[in-house]
Amino acid sequence: MLGLAWEWIDENRKIITWPDTKTGATSKPLNDALFEVLARIPRFKDVPWVFPSFDESESGHLEDIKRPWKRLLALSGIEDLTRHDLRHNVGNQAADEGENLQTVAALLGHRQTSTTERYSKTRGLAASNRLGATLKRKLGGKN
Q: Where are the alpha helices (DSSP H) in 18-124?
């Protein structure tokens, strides 16, 4: 993500296409909230990067997120949160909302759904709640 180039973002279709990742070229949809955040990031003339580095970076973009991440946590008052925690939360939230395993895998960039199963431990919670509410209603309980 640190090496994200503006040209990889298709604003009309609201997708990002990375030309080369560890699993090859891949495209991901931009949800409306993320698209709004990206739209507010300033663009600099002749700078292709979404997250440019204005110091001595050879690549021209940010290459390390550790210091900015620590600053962000300090500003927010959060003491113990990793970037992987956020990724794990996306998988769990999608599963909680009833998304199928293939959709969760696509959101997380997994080729194998078996990899995704580790992220979606709560898979089935939304379906279980719906079924429980239906059973309660059929047994004469209020919903």
A: 32-40, 66-76, 83-96, 101-108, 113-116
Q: Which amino acid belongs to residue 70? A: K
**CA pair distance 48, 6, nearest whole angstrom:** 6
Global pTM reads 0.65
Residue 87 has pLDDT above 60, yes or no: yes
Q: Are 98 and 126 in contact (CB under 8 A)?
A: yes
Please tell me whether residue 85 adopts helix, strand or coil conformation: helix
Whether 26 and 34 have beta carbons less than 8 Å apart is answered as: no
Q: How far is CA 122 from CA 99, 103, 133, in A?
A: 11, 15, 18
Residue 85: both structure tokens together: 């925690």
Helices (H), 2-82: 32-40, 66-76
What is the token pair recorded at 130? 């719906």
Quick one: pLDDT at residue 121? Answer: 60
